[in-house]
Amino acid sequence: MNKGSKTQYAVLGALSIQPMSGYEMKKMMNESTNYFWSESNGQIYPTLAKLAKEKYITVENQLVGSKPKKVYSLSATGVARLKKWLLEDPEYYPARNELVLKLFYGQNVSPKISIGHINKHSERCKQALIVYQDIIDSLEVLVRKKQRPVYFLIAALAGIKAVEAEIEWCNESIKLISKYTK
Amino acid sequence: MNKGSKTQYAVLGALSIQPMSGYEMKKMMNESTNYFWSESNGQIYPTLAKLAKEKYITVENQLVGSKPKKVYSLSATGVARLKKWLLEDPEYYPARNELVLKLFYGQNVSPKISIGHINKHSERCKQALIVYQDIIDSLEVLVRKKQRPVYFLIAALAGIKAVEAEIEWCNESIKLISKYTK
DNA sequence: GTGGGCATGTAAGGTGTTACATGATTCT
DNA sequence: AGAATCATGTAACACCTTACATGCCCAC
User: Fold this and answer.
1) What is the pLDDT of residues B137-157, one digit of tens each?
2) Which residue of B17, B91, B102 is in closest CB contact with A90?
3) pTM (predicted TM-score)
4) A86-CA/C27-C1' distance, Å
5) CA–C1' span, A42 to D21, in Å?
6) Which nucleotide is nearest to B71 (CA to C1')?
7) Exposure on the CB side of residue B141, measured as CA atoms within 13 A
8) Which residue, of A155, B104, B134, B162, is most buried by count of CB atoms within 10 Å of its CB?
9) Cα separation of A92 and B97, whole Å?
């Protein structure tokens, strides 16, 4: 397994929370890490197979009725691999942003178009804000009882801070475009 | 040329500023759009060739001494294609964020590790802030004279707002980890 | 009985980066 | 002379998503 691929670490990390199947992992990612990391089935299943082959995780074949289910768990070497990666400096990649790319070349179209894109984005951010706030509210209660979810809390906080900043940016940008075009 | 690929629009957009060669385009991207969009040579050159073949751009072969240089310009259909894309709603993709992924699984390592990652990130953001501020200062002067760079200004503003929010988040996260672990 | 959720997986194809190959020109 | 920059391009490989294939179980 190539050390550079991050998919494996997303998988190992998920298993560090609790043993689970590929299907459950996909669901869990959709519900929790989705806003900063997600993997498709086409990545999850082959990665689980490779990690199992290389003994970083173990498989337990369960039967739910006559339906097979493969529940994966971290092995000692798997935990070690995950920890080693957690210790390394994370890479900093400025993410691609299609909205900003379109705005950058906005002089080719009417200012109304750019303003429309920004308004739509602002609305989406406001929706996301509500979702994040719900997550944070429920996590904050738990954080005061046991330490674990403090890391989940700061992940959600990253989301909320980002969208708040984007909403501010949307407002200022619209003002600037209105003022300096026509 | 597949309509879904965004590389072509980054290329058409670049040519909407002025005609240029592949080499100049790469340089221009490194210097301006790099923080929200960049393309490698392995994308730029084949894309220029395809767009030229399909008449969205035209080529002029120049000679600098005995060294060949291909300067590309937008054709009328190229301008139309760019504009059509600019009118479409941009996609909203929550970008992958390796730092947040590592923090999310931070309970597997010492809190000091996570705090270290955050501190390092905060420093990088503060450096970026200085760079963005320089860009914005120089653009603001120009914006008051002619409208064009208002779109460049809001792109830079997106960067500055984002890193400012990240710095705040770093500070709060470190406080939370310090408070709720040990 | 059928639609939706559970469950595993593969195939094809697009996207993208890295590293290399090549060679001229310009600066020190 | 040698290094950096200008300039174009390709090959190999990694990454990732979409769509499909398969089939069981359960609720209505």
Assistant:
1) 989 888 887 756 899 999 999
2) B102
3) 0.94
4) 45
5) 14
6) D7
7) 5
8) A155
9) 8
Closest-CA residue to B97 (of A136, A6, A126): A6
Which tokens sit at B83? 């504009």
Rounded CA separation A120/A116 (Å): 6
In angstroms, the CA B123 to CA B145 distance is 35
DSSP codes, A20-56:
B-HHHHHHHHHHTGGGT----HHHHHHHHHHHHHTTS
Chain centroid offset of residue A150 CA: 17
| Cβ contacts of A173 within 8 Å, gap of 6 or more | A103, A118, B154, B157, B158
CB distance A157 to B104 below 8 Å: no
- Name the residue with higher pLDDT: A55 or A141: A55
At which residue do the structure tokens 């379109």 appear? A102
Rounded to 5 degrees, what are φ and ψ at A66? -105, 10
Hey, CA dihedral for A46, A48, A49, A55, is it positive or negative? positive
Give the span between the Cα atoms of A143 and B73, in whole angstroms. Answer: 58
Kindly report the length of chain A.
Answer: 182
- Residue by residue, DSSP assigns B72-116 as EEE-HHHHHHHHHHHHSPPP--PPP-HHHHHHHTGGGS-HHHHHH
The answer to whether the CB atoms of B36 and A96 lie below 8 A apart is yes
